[in-house]
């Protein structure tokens, strides 16, 4: 007999209203929300990463006409600074710790996010171990070109999850370092000492919108964030000492605005237009990733592609209740 669901994941591409739906579900079931967003973990990345923390506050009208506000607890937002490099291993480790705590309170762990590798790492249980820096290996690799490093990595890991890593030298070196250790006897000894990973029975709900609606949402949200000071946010980060190279690695908004601030893109209008099209392409890549997860055996219960919030909520509620999840 299959164990009951102890983890729910809500995934989907950018600008489809995941947070709003997640907050409604968390409010109904009295859940915490665990964010699965690779940029929202960083302090100072607010508008560009779309934190929208005001959405985590639910307002309810009382019989006397007064308003009661309730804050939905959230996790893995603003947990580190740009001085560190937060990655999928960190996310998985932090999630397992949160899962154990939430599970001990007889609650279901509820994950919401669009970073495909993050959600996939817990749904399919990526095999990670902590890997320390190998100075001798790094010295040896320092003499090789990026093309040679890419070749080494692909031989070690033919089914590489994220091919974009092949474009960044330090990431390729780190990936080679990890894969080399994973195949070593030392790794097997380390595994014996690591805490047992929790047994997860994950229910995955997906939400997206028809392409024209999604594109319009992206445009509206992008213009709002620029009006609200997203350009100033990127400038402030650079003024605080973070290099353009560091900002470039933080994704499209930070990359394009950094280029604009460096005058590589001549006007704000051109920057906005280019960024809009890049985000639309990114949303398509997110959906491709989720389809790839399904091809690898992950069942995703997709909601109807409707914009009405109440309809999406009721459809999600039906999926959850049909899976044996009841309001506590």
Structural features, described:
The chain has 328 residues and is α/β, with parallel strands linked by helices. The chain has 13 helices and eight strands. It has helices spanning 18-29, 88-104, 116-123, 135-141, 146-156, 169-182, 185-193, 211-227, 230-239, 244-248, 252-261, 268-295, 309-322, and strands spanning 7-11, 33-35, 57-61, 67-71, 74-75, 109-113, 202-206, 300-302. The strands form two sheets. It has a six-stranded parallel sheet with strand order 5-2-6-1-7-8, sandwiched between helices. β3 (57-61) and β4 form a beta hairpin. α2 packs across α3, α5 (146-156) packs parallel to α6 (169-182) and α11 (252-261) runs antiparallel to α12. The radius of gyration is 21 Å and the shape is globular.
For the termini, the CA-CA separation is 23 Å
* Sheet with most strands: strand arrangement: 5-2-6-1-7-8
Tell me the fraction of residues in β-strands, as a range. 5-15%
As a percent range, the share of helical residues equals 40-55%
Low-confidence residue ranges: none
Count up the helices.
Answer: 13
Number of strands: 8
Radius of gyration: 21 Å
What does the average pLDDT come to?
A: 94
Q: How does the helix and strand content classify structurally? A: alpha/beta
What is the element string, with H for helices and E for strands?
A: EHEEEEHEHHHHHEHHHHHEH
Main beta-sheet strand count, sense and barrel state: 6 strands, parallel
Instruction: Describe the global form.
Output: globular
């Amino acid at each position: 007999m299959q164990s009951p669901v102890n983890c729910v994941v809500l995934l989907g591409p950018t600008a489809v209203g995941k947070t709003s739906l997640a907050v409604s579900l968390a409010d109904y079931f009295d859940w915490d929300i665990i964010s699965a967003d690779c940029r929202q973990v960083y302090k100072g990345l607010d508008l560009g990463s779309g934190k929208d923390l005001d959405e985590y506050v639910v307002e309810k009208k009382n019989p006397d006409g007064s308003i009661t506000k309730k804050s939905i607890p959230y996790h893995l937002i603003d947990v580190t600074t740009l001085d560190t490099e937060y990655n999928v291993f960190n996310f998985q480790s932090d999630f397992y710790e949160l899962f154990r705590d939430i599970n001990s309170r007889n609650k279901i762990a509820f994950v919401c996010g669009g970073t495909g590798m993050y959600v996939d790492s817990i749904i399919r249980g990526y095999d990670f171990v902590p890997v320390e820096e190998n100075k001798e290996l790094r010295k040896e690799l320092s003499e090789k070109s990026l093309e040679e490093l890419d070749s080494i990595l692909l031989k070690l890991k033919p089914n590489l999850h994220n091919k974009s890593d092949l474009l960044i030298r330090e990431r390729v070196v780190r990936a080679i370092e990890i894969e080399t250790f994973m195949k070593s006897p030392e790794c097997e000894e380390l595994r014996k000492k690591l805490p047992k990973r929790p047994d997860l029975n994950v229910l995955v709900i997906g939400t997206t919108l028809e392409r024209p609606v999604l594109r319009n949402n992206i445009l509206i949200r992008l213009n709002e964030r620029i009006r609200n000071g997203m350009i100033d946010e990127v400038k402030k980060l650079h003024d605080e000492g973070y290099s353009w190279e560091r900002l470039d690695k933080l994704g499209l908004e930070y990359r394009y605005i950094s280029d604009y601030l460096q005058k590589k893109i001549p006007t704000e209008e051109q920057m906005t237009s280019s960024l809009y099209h890049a985000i639309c392409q990114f949303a398509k890549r997110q959906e491709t990733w989720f389809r790839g997860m399904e091809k690898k055996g992950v069942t995703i219960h997709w909601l109807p592609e409707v914009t009405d919030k109440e309809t999406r909520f009721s459809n999600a509620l039906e999926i959850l209740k049909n899976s044996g999840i009841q309001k506590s």
